[in-house]
Design goal:
mainly beta, Tachylectin-2, Chain A, hydrolase activity, acting on glycosyl bonds
Amino acid sequence: MSVPVPLFDALLFDPRDVDLSRSPLAGKVDAETYVLGAFNPGMTRLPNGNLLLMVRVAEALRTPIRDGHIHAIRWEEGGYTLDQWPLDFVDTSDPRKFMMRGGGWKVMALTSLSWLLPVELSADGRRVEAVHYDRAVEPRAPYQCYGVEDARISKVGDRWLMTTCSVSPERHSTTLYTSDNALDWQLEGIVLDHQNKDMLIFEGLVGGKYWAQTRPLGDLYFAYPPGSEWRAGPSINLASSPDALHWKPYDKPGIRPHAATMATARMGGGAPPVLTDKGWLTLWHGVEPLGVVGIYRTYWSLLDRDDPGVVLRTSHDPLIEPRAALTDPLKELMYLDNVVFTTGIVDAGDHYVVASGEADLACRITHLGKRVFAI
């Protein structure tokens, strides 16, 4: 696989940069916490020309297991609380979560709770200018009681739209926030229901409507016919909306796993699609099966500007790969590797600034010349 050489590639923000004394949870949880990861940042350009990262901060219990129980943080009206389960009832082999035993289907809880931290970068995305703790986004509703995760930001007209994953026992849903300045966010509520993740709103209207990529998940997929160019599994679907609140799935399929490669056997949306002279450029993640989580890489496709259900071109070579050299200084903080998860893209003239989460740990900024895309 051939991977292009970036013009700039660095980690800009990591767990050591988060001041937990200014966390929304500070003084509200009766246990010591730490930053498990500061990663998967949504990105946009602010009115002042600087870039904004909306960083997912996974704030975890330092000692989730004690006194024969495992504990989890949960938001409730007025603050935060700790729940506990006897160890005999759970599987604790994964440090990020624990699975309930029995029940006939998968039920899990998290050892961390995620909130969103606005981090302002310089206009070129090469340095941190400010961290806006006073604009942090934390859970505000029961459907967010286990956290707010993985922001994706699009500017459509004069308004910014931010989708997030909200986690709760009620549902694992996609929620929408809106803003007039990309710093002060208004929660609009749930826009996609249970386990429809990686919702990316196109940065512009198509046929007078809002469009989005979605990725519904499930445990059952039907086989393509023998010899098909496609592989059954999670795919990147499409939906349209008159108002960005009410979404109708598009009848045509979107981007599907290709039978010619196992590197993208599992896939999902990455950065919100941006319009080029040739069509909509979309960056997405493909996962090659390996070990527990697989190898995450970033790929790209070009979609028709008038009908995003038409894929004009897809690259089977990765655009961005995990880079161990970037995370070597953070070895003592790492709990997983082989993951780069792209979540934002901004046009910077002759190149794109791309934001990713590296190893579910830190925020990575990569500059890619437009010639890389050959479009």
